[in-house]
Structure formats: C-alpha cells, structure tokens
Amino acid sequence: MRSALLGPLLLLLLLAAGMDVRGDEADKKPNFVLMMVDDLGIGDIGCYGNDTIRTPNIDRLASEGVKLTQHIAAAPLCTPSRAAFMTGRYSLRSGMVSTGRVQVLLFLGGSGGLPPTETTFAKRLQQQGYTTGLVGKWHLGVNCQHRGDHCHHPNQHGFSYFYGLPFTLFNDCVPGHGSDVLADLQHTLRNLSALVAVGLVTVVCVRLCGLFEVRLWLLVLLFLLCILATAVWYVPFMLLPTWNCIIMRNQDVIEQPMTVETLPQRLLSEAQNFIKRNVDHPFLLFFSLAHIHTPLFTNPAFAGKSRHGLYGDNLEEVDWIIGKMTETVDSLGLANNTLMYFTSDHGGHLEDGDPRIGQKGGWNSIYKGGKAMGGWEGGIRVPGIFRWPGRLAPGRVVDEPTSLMDLYPTLKYLAEDTRPDRQSDGYNLMPLLEGKTVRSEHEFMFHYCGIYLNAVRWHPQGSDSVFKVHFFTPNFSPPGAVGCYDTKVCLCHGEHVTHHNPPLLYDLFHDPSESRPLTRETEPRYAEILEQTARAVETHKSTLINEQASDDTQSPASTAAYKVQGQMTWDKILWRPWLQPCCGTFPFCGCKEDATHV
Hey, is 529 helix, strand or coil? Predict the structure, then answer.
C-alpha cells in the first residue's frame, strides 16, 4: 500500500516543483541590452538595404526579432539626441540644446550637461532593483561647480557602473587628424599670440639698437601679454587630447590621454563582463559604442577586408562586436529573458571625408541630408532592431513612426514601474513590437535643430501617409551641394538657414527621399495639413511652458514662456581648469589603465 502511494506522491511533488520553477521564471524581470552606434547611417546595414557591406550579425538580430523602418532620433546630433534618448523627452525640456553654432558639448572641463533634476531610464530601473551599467560614450557632461562634484556623471543619473568615455571620440584624440573643436577660433588665437610675439621682438630690437627709448614697463607688459595670448589658445586647445580624450571607471580617471588603438576591444570586454557579473540579477546594460565616429579605428584584423575602405572596415568591426554581444547573451542562457536593442544616435556624417582615406561618414540610403541637418530624414531616421526570443515574433517589420524617446516608457513598462512620472514624449513600444496594435501612438512628432522647431511630422488617423512640414532648412555649402562642407556641420540659425513661407511639405509614404514638395495643386489636403500641424505646434508649445529659455522668434516653438536653464551656452561650454577631470595633480594629468583590468 505504501509503495502504491509513493509513486503518485513523488509525481505530485515533481509537478509542484516544476510549477514553482516556471512561476519563478515567469516572475523574473527581463534584462535589457541596449546597443547604440555613433553616427551610423541607416543605409550602412544589410537589413536596411546595403548589399556591399557585410553585417550578418546585425541582420541576424533583425531576422530573429522586429525591425523598425521609421525609427526617429529626436535630434540630428550626439548630445541633444542622447539626452532625449536617456530621458524620453525632447532635449529642449532639459536645456540640452543650442541657440548658436556650438550644438554639442566641446570640453569635459565645461559646466554644461544633463541636469541632475532630469530622470533617465537607468535611474527608474535602478529604483526597481536593476543593476545598471553604461559602457562606452556618455557626452552629457561631468562636473558643475568644481572638479569631482560629478553632478552630470552617469553614476548620478542612475548607472550603477560606468566604464568608458565621459566625452566622445574626437579627431583631436589621434595625432594628425586635425581638430573638431572651434578650429577657426584656434586659428585666430594663434595668429593673435604670434602678432603679440612679433611686437615684443620688434620693441626689444628697437631698444637694443637705441633707435627709440623704450620703457622697461612696456617690455614687461608685452612679455606678459605674449605669455597670456599663448596660454589662452595653447593650454585649452593644444592639450585637448589630455583634457577630453580620457577613460573613466565610475568616477575615477583611469587613462589620460587614452590609447585609441585598444579602445574597441576594451569596451567590448567591459560590456561582456558586465553581463557575466550580473547573470543572476536583472540588469540594464547600455553599450554605447565609440564607432563609427571619426577618427576611424585601424584594427589590423579588419583592415582591407571591406569593399568600402577604412569606413567599411570599421562597419564590419561594428558588426563583429554586435555578434560577440549576442553570443555572450545566448551562451549564458539569457536570450529568452533579455531584450536586445540596436540603433544609432542619428544619421551618418555626409561632409566627413579625407583625400587619403575617402568617405569617413555614413550612408543614409535614399533619405535626404545627414548629421546636423535639422529635420531632413537622413539625419534622424536610424536603425531600430529589437530581439527577444519567445516574446517577439521573428522577422516582423514595423513601418509606423517610432522614436528613440520610446525606449524610456518601454523599459519602464517592462520593469513594471508604474510610479508617476513627469512630461514624457515617448510611448511604450511593446504593443507595436508584439503585434497587438498596428498603429503608432505618435500622431505628431516634432523635429528640432538646436533650440528651434525645424519640422513637424503628421501621421493622420486612417491613412498610410506621413506628412512632414519644414519651417526652415539648412543652407548647403557650396550651393547645390548635399551638405555644409564649408562649416563641416550645418547650423540652425541666422544666415545659415532658409525659412519657408508657406512651409515645405512632403508625404514620406509616397516620397521618402523628400524630393517632391507638395502644393495646393498636387495635394487635396494641403490646407488641412498646414492647419492641423499649426494646431499641434500650439499644443506642443503649451507643454513646454516653464521648460526652457529663449527670446528667439525664428520658429513657432520660440514664443513659449520658459524656465529651465540652458546647458549649451558659451559660459557652460568653454573650458574651465577647475572643472577638468584629472588623474594625478592638475595640470600634470596623466595615467594609463592597469593592464590587469584590460
């Protein structure tokens, strides 16, 4: 009798144990691996139409998951786009926008950056029990008032762990590649110091030859002016590799200046190790690659392997890195509980080229414009790929308008964060990704160039059309070119733009390359489109009240009453010695990363 009961009892115990295991698995919070490339063109990837550059690992992500074809950055430049991505809000709301020529942070020793009052998706998930990590590029500021306050640092914005570039990868980081930082101002300051030096030498010669009587105090004054003039340009600009090109682990500078050649492998290793360390806990990893921003890397393993020179070599290295990340997630048995995401911060840089190397910027496919070109599609339409086996059906394609800002509410939803939040501009993507809805919640999207509202996208209910209205467009140089080659990046103000009255109007569904402007004669809904767009702008403006300061009148958004302090003003951007991150004793900063950590 006892043996007859033992079998069924054991079976019941095993079934109960199995139910508990399945219950624990179902209750386990998902992990997130977000991978963002810098300056990648949407046309650079095989699954988005490129048939000459090999990207099998990225293509595999798309075939195993969901591909977004109308995924939009909130800005066509690094700093404002990444601020919007992190916060789920237009960068205007956080002050991470510019009114003039400088549209991104230029010095680690500046005081501008993502305000401490802002909330990132990392901070929300950290509060939900997630271990959060950022490996790679930050470019959203470090200090506010003194060296070491770290008010803008990733650790203060919800990332438990940070390893990488608190700034970005600039040409200044590699000798012989020129400078990306105020090159014309550097030239002027050098000429000024040279002029003062010539004046000093001339006066000394006059005194020594006895041609005229020259007071000693004048010589001393000229000498001091010469030293000052030289210091004004030499210290902040000629030492840029030391000031900007550094690596930090959390809040410690561990390499200054950094060794660029080994950077990609170090970033990959750190990203993989973060996943391995947190395999038993819910985690968020934002892997922000240093590729494909210039200067381009020269990894011998990829040199000469592509059909597109050094740029193609770098892209194929990017694909290899993404493959290694996918392999890490899969080999640890995390795939079915991990949402992997691949994107770029904005479009490719069309103007970036070199007589020796050729094109150094990306290809934006059929879309007009590129990096820093306001609302033109080529600068803001980016790859968007989500993979989550068992949760997202493989091979699905979503053609609806979506945004980088949608990651914030999507991650919140998946982490079961239901706490109240502030004004958000993104929407939870899961209904679209899972096929539970076929319609994006983005009826209107607003495209900014600096602080100025540049264009508006409208996706009317019950229509496949996506209309886009341009209030102004950048002036390409030279005239007839496809970019701003004279200034290297297009600007958003004054003589650098052309205002359109009435606005330029396109239907992206029928004309994705924005080559055929609609008119009253060619579009029956012309008047309605402009009217509906104007109403949407007014509604949008009402949400900006008390958000940001401007007295400019060149765009519809500029008439709102604002309050948030701008982070991209000259006084916040320019270098301040007392804010400069440093390993060692300032100004003698210098160190190399411990090889045992590489």
Answer: helix
